[in-house]
Amino acid sequence: MKICVIRPGLPFPHAAQAIHVKRRRTDHRTGKTAIVTIYAITSPPPGRITHAQLAALIRGHWSVEALHHVRDVTYREDACRLRTGTPPRIMAGLRNLAIGLARLIGWADIATATDHYRNHRTDGLQLLGVTT
Fold it and tell me: For residues 92 and 99, what is the distance between their CA atoms, to the nearest angstrom?
């Protein structure tokens, strides 16, 4: 990870530092590893936050992005027509609940878990303690 101070006048009003990160990403299906470069901008000035803290913030951001990716790819969240009011929040919460329950009981692949419970609805009800 490389960090540099940002010169004044950039179109990011609170930007203080730029970060350049190279990381390895392995495709578990093929076993191939690729090096991915990302860039980030942060507002804390130099000396206020350590490299380790910045790295933790970046990892935390990508864990949130990973959840959004699962919600969009598995549940097609971006294609959902609910756009206003509380219904979009409710649906996001239900999707997060489904993902959390699947991970809690050991599913690594949320799409496979979703397919399983779609085809075996009584299994899903049993998880929630509901009997038919």
Answer: 10
